[in-house]
Amino acid sequence: MANATIQSVIQALVRRYRFERPIYITRPTLPKLEDFRRRL
Predict the structure, then answer these.
(1) What are the Cα distances from residue 38, in Å, to 4, 28, 30?
(2) What is d(CA 35, CA 2) in angstroms, rounded to the nearest whole number?
(3) At 32, is the secondary structure helix, strand, or coil?
(4) Residues 1-40 pLDDT 10s
(5) Coil, strand, or helix at residue 20?
């Protein structure tokens, strides 16, 4: 039971990480691109 619960929690975290990761990567880069455009 414990192993199955741990596996389900890990799977949920992995799904959440895969889903949130691209959003997390694009959010910080957007202001940087705006700053880069302003400098040009």
Answers:
(1) 52, 16, 13
(2) 49
(3) helix
(4) 678 898 898 888 888 776 666 555 556 666 666 777 777 6
(5) helix
11: its two tokens:
């799977």
What are the helix (H) ranges across the chain?
A: 2-39
Task: Give residue 4's pLDDT.
Answer: 87
Q: Which residue's structure tokens are 């959003």?
A: 23
Q: Look at residue 28 in the predicted model and tell me its pLDDT.
A: 62
Q: For the chain, how many residues are written?
A: 40
Q: Which residue has the tokens 């691109």?
A: 33
Residue recorded with tokens 């414990």: 2
DSSP state of 40: -
